[in-house]
Design goal:
Elements lengths: L1 H25 L12 H5 L7 H10 L1 H14 L5 E4 L11 H5 L6 H17 L1 E8 L15 E7 L4 E6 L5 E9 L5 E6 L4 E5 L13 H23 L2 E5 L5 H8 L6 H14 L10 E5 L8 H15 L3 H5 L5 H35 L9 E4 L8 H18 L9 H7 L10 H16 L2
Antiparallel strand pairs: 1-10, 2-3, 2-7, 4-5, 5-6, 8-9
């Protein structure tokens, strides 16, 4: 029965493989190779990716996990500020509108927004639940003018559109919350209490989606090389008997039938692999371990790693944390800082949309003009500023031979990060404030 069942299973698997191959011939979209329509099917690449595929990649794939977390961690290294007016305004005084919003835009507020941003990168889009102090049920509209208790990040898989109006606007969400005991509970959430970030359209491209195929190949290289090492370490034995050996006599020595002789061999192999000093006695047979040469997975792994790094626009050394040279690491970090600084501009639009929603709910008072500002990740560090000042001083010394001075003392002090009138260094206070702010967000 077991052999017949195994034959049936093998036949079914073969039919499934042929069916996928025929589907690939009929559907040219399965892969980019126009000559071989079944290429993706043979490679093990999926044609359509769901949220579960991307979530499992993030949860179990170290490369994908590192790419998402390092991008979000650097983008949200410090919290933004929502100010009144234009960012180019030279006025440094805090306005009454900004002071009144401190109770809303707290460190916990930005920490939750950063978590939603991370979930958006994993699943194409995510949402924030607005917990308003109005005493109403979640499926009821928000009472305008009440305070905001907190915001909660939500995965895209936990929210579904329950109903829409004739114009396509969402009139009710269905939220699936997992309780502490693991049981899911479904609740209706009014759109007033939900804010989405990301693209919910069917043709949206997720952050991890372009590099998904490369991660599949990475998993094959990692698992295949690990399996090869394991099989070699397991010392599977090959027993080669001479043609004159009578298996009936050999079986009689163990008191078993010829059909049960294989079990005795397996027991002997287990004892050999389990013990350090174990003797294997043979007569008319030679025993050799089944060992195969394991190929170096490095070159194949690096090719797929570079492909994935290109898909997420992050240097390989940043993703894996490899430090092969100070100059290469510094240049990669500068590129990453510039990449995250540019992405902050996109995050500013999401933040402005959330502030607009809070203004509609009268949690935040209206203002004529508002701007989201961040600190500069590309700004030179204290050491780099001192190096620039030293170079300026050397240029002055060289130019004095011709009777001229290129830079003034005040210019050199500013380049070094100090006040031109002999005050405290500018960069020292900035670093202290940044460190204190980051520490507060982890509380």
């Amino acid at each position: 029965m077991n052999k017949n069942l195994q034959l049936a299973v093998n036949h079914a698997l073969n039919d499934a493989r042929l069916a996928r191959a025929r589907m690939g011939l009929l559907n040219p979209s399965m892969g980019l190779d126009a000559k071989r329509g079944t290429a993706w099917c043979e490679y093990g690449f999926k044609e359509e990716l769901t949220f579960d595929d991307l979530y499992k990649l993030y949860r179990r794939g170290g490369i994908a996990y590192g790419a998402v977390n390092k991008l979000v961690g650097l983008c949200w290294k410090t919290n933004p500020e929502v100010i009144e007016g234009d960012a180019d305004d030279d006025t440094k005084d805090e306005t009454a509108w900004e002071r009144s919003n401190k109770r809303v835009f707290t460190h916990r507020f930005w920490r939750s927004f950063a978590e939603a941003d991370k979930r958006r990168l994993v699943g194409r889009w995510a949402a924030l639940l607005l917990h308003v102090r109005d005493g109403k049920k979640p499926n009821e509209p928000v009472t305008r003018g009440r305070g905001l208790a907190k915001i909660s990040p939500v995965w895209a898989s936990a929210l579904k559109v329950k109903s829409r109006d004739n114009n396509g606007n969402i009139t009710m969400w269905q939220y699936t919350e997992t309780q502490a005991d693991g049981n899911p509970v479904q609740r209706d959430i009014h759109p007033d209490r939900v804010f989405t970030i990301g693209d919910m359209s069917d043709d949206a491209i997720g952050f991890l989606e372009p590099g998904y195929n490369a991660c599949v190949s990475l998993e094959k290289v990692e698992g295949g090389s690990g399996e090869s090492f394991l099989k070699n370490a397991a010392r599977q034995l090959n027993v080669n008997f001479e043609k004159e050996i009578d298996f009936n006599n050999l079986a009689s020595l163990y008191g078993v039938s010829v059909s049960d002789l294989q079990d005795k061999f397996n027991e002997a192999a287990v004892e050999v692999n389990r013990g350090n000093d174990v003797l294997l006695t043979t007569q008319g047979a030679s025993v050799t371990p089944l060992v195969t040469a394991v190929a170096d997975p490095g070159p194949t792994y690096d090719v797929n790693l570079q492909t994935f790094a290109a898909s997420v626009d992050e240097p390989v050394k940043i993703i894996v944390g490899m430090q092969t040279g100070e100059r290469a690491s510094s240049e990669d970090q500068k590129y990453m800082n510039a990449r995250c600084q540019s992405r902050r501009q996109d995050l500013s639009f999401d933040i402005e949309d959330l502030v607009d929603k809070l203004i509609v709910l009268r949690i935040v008072t209206p203002v004529t003009e508002k701007t989201v500002v961040w600190d500069d990740l590309t700004e030179a560090t204290g050491g780099e500023k001192l190096d620039n000042a030293a170079k300026m001083s050397n240029i002055n010394q060289t130019s004095l031979a011709s009777g001229g001075q290129v830079f003034t003392v005040e210019e050199i002090r500013v380049a070094a990060g100090y006040e031109p009138d002999g005050g405290e260094p500018l960069w020292e206070g900035e670093d202290d404030d940044e460190e204190a702010e980051v520490t507060d967000t982890t509380q």
